[in-house]
Amino acid sequence: MNFATRLKELRKSKKITQLMLALELKTNQNTISRYETGEREPGINEIIAIANYFNVSVDYLLGVTNNSDTK
């Protein structure tokens, strides 16, 4: 599973909109949309912020592992 798919799944599982996530991450809805469609790749700081927001590991977010545990 790739980053775009994983991000969309995590967002939908929390039942939040792209706009709500964008506001939490201090970005805009268009950026979140582009992340989810794969049009844009986030930088390392954004990846860490997203992983922290969803309380998952960066490896999980990037699709390296299916274990979401941050420990």
Radius of gyration (CA) equals 11 Å
Mean pLDDT: 94
Using the coordinates shown, work out and report the CATH topology. Answer: 434 Repressor (Amino-terminal Domain)
Strand content: under 5%
What's the CATH superfamily, by name? lambda repressor-like DNA-binding domains
Total strand count, please? Answer: 0
Shape: globular
Number of domains: 1
Order of helices and strands: HHHHH
Short account of what is shown:
The protein is an all-alpha fold. Helices cover about 60% and strands about 0% of the residues. The radius of gyration is 11 Å and the shape is globular.
Structural account:
This protein is mainly alpha-helical. It has one domain (3-61): 434 Repressor (Amino-terminal Domain) (Orthogonal Bundle). 59% of the residues lie in helices and 0% in strands. It has 5 helices and no strands. Helix 2 packs across helix 3 (29-37).
